[in-house]
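Hi D.,

Good news: the full-assembly prediction came through. Inputs first.
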Amino acid sequence: MTAGVAPTIAAHTTVARRPWPAPTRRRTYVPREGAYWLLVTAALWLTGWFKGINLILLLAYVLVVMWVLNWVVARRMLQRAMVRRKVRGPVFAEATFTWEVEASVVGTRPLTGWEVVDTGPGHDVRWSLSNTPSGDSIRLWRDVTLTDRGPYDCPPVRAISSFPFGLVRQEVEYGVAERVIVLPRLGLLHAGRLRRWLAQTARPDERARRSRRRLAMEAEFHGLRQFRPGDSPRWIHWRTSARTGELVVREFDHGTHHDLLLVVEPFATAQRSAEVEAAVSLAATVCWSWSQDAQDRVVLAVGGPEPVVRVGGDGPDSMIDLLEALAVVRPASEFSPRDVGRVLHRVPLPAGPALLIGTRPDVGTADGLSRELDRPVAYVNAAQPPTFYQPPS
Amino acid sequence: MQQITKQFHRSMYISLGLACACLGYAEYEFLPEISVLAAVVGVLLVVAYRVEGRWALSIRAANVLGGVIALLAGAWLTYQFMRPEGGLIDQLPAPTWMLPYLGPLLMVLVPAKLFRPKHNGDVWSLQGIGLIAVALGSALTGDPVFGVLMLAYLVAGAWGLLAFYQYRQAEHFAANRRPAAPALWQAGKWVLASTALALGLFLCTPRMSEARWELTTTSGRLVTGTDENRPSIDLNRFGTLTSNREKAFDVIAFTRDDEIDPPPKTDLDPGQRWRQWDFNFYERGQWQNRDLGYSAGRRLGGNQRALQLQLPSIDPAREFYLEFHLPPSRPGARPAMTFADPLAVKRPGAAGERTSTIMHRKFGGRRFSWAPGLSNEQPTPGAPSHAVYDQVYLPPAEPGVTPVTFQVDEPYLEQFRGCVSVPRLRTWAGDLLKRFVREGRLPAAAVGDVTSPDRVRPEYYEVVSRLFEAHLAHSGQFVYSLTTTRKDNDLDPVEDFVLNTHTGQCTRFASALALMLRAVGVPTKAVLGYRGYETTGNGVYEVLQCHAHSWVEAFILRPGAKPTDPPEWRLLTLDPTPSGDDAGTKFDWAQWWESARQNAASLFKNFIIDYDADQQQRTRYAMSQTGWWWTARWTWQLILGDQENDWARALMFASGVTAIVLGVRFLIRRWRARRALRADPAPAFYHRLLAALGRWLGLTPRRGQTPGEFAAAAGGRLRAAAATRDVADVPAETAALYYRVRFGNRPLAPAELQNLIAGLKRLESATARAAGR
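Then the structure:
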């Protein structure tokens, strides 16, 4: 691992049984009350020593020994503590997820009066623990919401103890800083309408008509299956549903030709752009919806100075790869269909429809890209989302 | 949470109350009226505790209250400045007199702040005020009771810190990991450990020799022992005398002066007196040694300074030799030399000079003589050569009467008859003398000297002295006590003792006798020194400061002495202090308690309050003199017996020690296991299930069997028997709840816990019945 580069947590999979991270840094902090305590102690000591007031001198020694004992005890206690972070499931911006930390104690005696703290730029979770039996492993969790997509650097998780008096704080960091990719916010997308819209998008040239006809033929009736959340109500086969007593939907045979070529144009002149965010969210929502069917594949291209291409595969893992690619999209002030086309030609392109999501009204980018790819390219302006898509609130 | 909050408030209020108690106790000596304020503050603390969390002053009202307190404090301080006399301003040096006045202000601040709405920062402020109050009290008193109060405050304060620590963290506690509120004993454990370590540091800290805080070291506290820097008897100080077990000096006694192998003398008289100072002048409650303008007279056995290489032999049959070892004294201080009393001298030699019986060691063993008390020669201050000196001692043939004779004239003796400052005592002593005559204990001819009709004739000095001594010691009217009080401050302390209080220490008795005898014309001296010793065997004797004693010496003429002019006087030792033998040797709890209290107070005073550079040096010296090797030898003999060859005993000893170690280890492990179980209540009920099934049915989980699997197996077993069929579901229910609490982090609701315990009880009963118990 290169120094300074945080490893990325595989957020989309259940965390495997990782070994307990070793303590990487031990620090001692003197809180304000501890500093005042030392100050008063020093004043008492000086008074007692210079003036020969032995009781004050003794009192000063008791106070300073209490402080030192506090430090020693807190330090020794944390030598027996083990802590590790476990982030489960994909983390989406503005979506609450479970932030989990596991703590354990070695040795023979229970550990008391310590804290597990996990803080970062967008989260601050802490748990106070008392009488933690040795050998016990405790799962600690808290609901957390991260606001911004993109890489999220998590400092090492810490164990803190000021036990017993709270005069000096000992802190131990476990492992190294980690990075979580916060995926873009997802909106609500009517996948069927998107597909139909893609199929029916009219193009003035013959090539487009041929493509449209081909797209229309792509969705052929395949069979019936039980209704699943996310299915469009339009797919419900009412007759069969009435006969069986449960919702049954029509299933279409999309085949490989239902793969989608998705191109994002993150055009913006400012560093932070609501249009870009909207475009990324729309693209992420399309990826998420399109990949719900294991057989569908998405090839994603993100325009910009250095266009990026990700080829989705079967299953959720590859879909998360696409979302992670979208998570790190930054606004770009230029978009060259030629560059995008050149990059796209390096990978096997799907035979399915092509969709360009932009941040502005169509200024001919879709046509340019269509020419580069030699296929019709549908265009959606994220700033004016289509009716089949409801942006995240 | 509620329990932690309650505990936190309780500990905070107790620690603040103890801080106020510390300050009130320390200030009582300076401002007696503070006791009323302390009582009021105590009541306010109780009220504040009762209304804590339910009612508080508004910030505005609290500020107004603070202003009122400031005004009152200002007015009170102004009054202290304006009062005519008797205030601390007159009694204490500036700016020390300000310290006691800070106390009431601090005490009032505590409840004023407690009634305000509080946040976490206020807790630290309050504890800071409490700490300052205790520190102020530490500067005002050195009393052992204050030490106890301070320790109690520290324990309560630590308890408060523990509770506050948990109180602050309470909001972050994990759902099923709420701790129990900290107990007082936990705080006590921390404070005792801290105090033990702090004491070590305190004792090792180098001290400035000139730094002595007078408020705590001389604020009326009395302690046994003599002060080498202030040789006097001060009767103006009163109070309870604290026993001081600090070593005054060591004495090694030999029966023969042999430098190579001197045979030890182990039968020294238990009542041996060690003379240090004598005083000839009394005024206003103080004995001093003054040059009264008339020196000499012709003293036999007087000032002879001669180079001697060895001690003389006086009476080989009865004499013995004493080697004195003084502990090192503070640089610049004059070593207070002490010698066995009475002093013997060598009869005139061929040159007509007497030989001193005391010699110093100096310069690699070479000796020279110097007779303390008989010479104006004084040792060089601080010279280490005087730390060791020798004396040849001849026990007096007649107890209490010095073998030395003094041929002194009347003007010289008149110096020892001064008692003008005690007119009432003179009257009282004259009346007592007349009473003895009336009772026939003294012939009428004894009274009526040529110089005064009220004086005793010189040949009756001894009789009168012994009668007066017996009156003080055995009449029953006077009682020895370590506590001295005053009844009439207008009287001289000795007059107050003789006429009013009748109780006191040896210095009161000795002073009273000396002045009583002077009042009837008997010349006397008050003597300060030591009486008795503690021995460790082999002729080594330790004289401690608690052996300090005071007695009287009266000039007497022995009947039948050869008439000379001037006559030959001897000194009669008189000890009027009741011995306390009348109390008997029966064990008495009160006596034991008093003794223990005095020892503790002595330790507190010697090693904390008065622990200065001198005491540190003396302690170091005492440590260096301790025979640590003796401990090792004692251990060796304990294992191998007195003959050091009992190997069977050693084997038994080793076996016993091993058994004890293993037993203790077992108990510690068991205790830790139970503690761990208590610390995590989640699996407690599951363990109870295991215990019930294991005890009566012999069911225990197999290796690798999960709680759920075990519960299913146990349920099947219970279901198979009619007696336990009703409780067959209990294991499964318990295991399910165990999973939930242990791994699901969802604690049991009180009703669930109640049901669970009821089910376990039914299971225990049913399994016990099934097992036929």
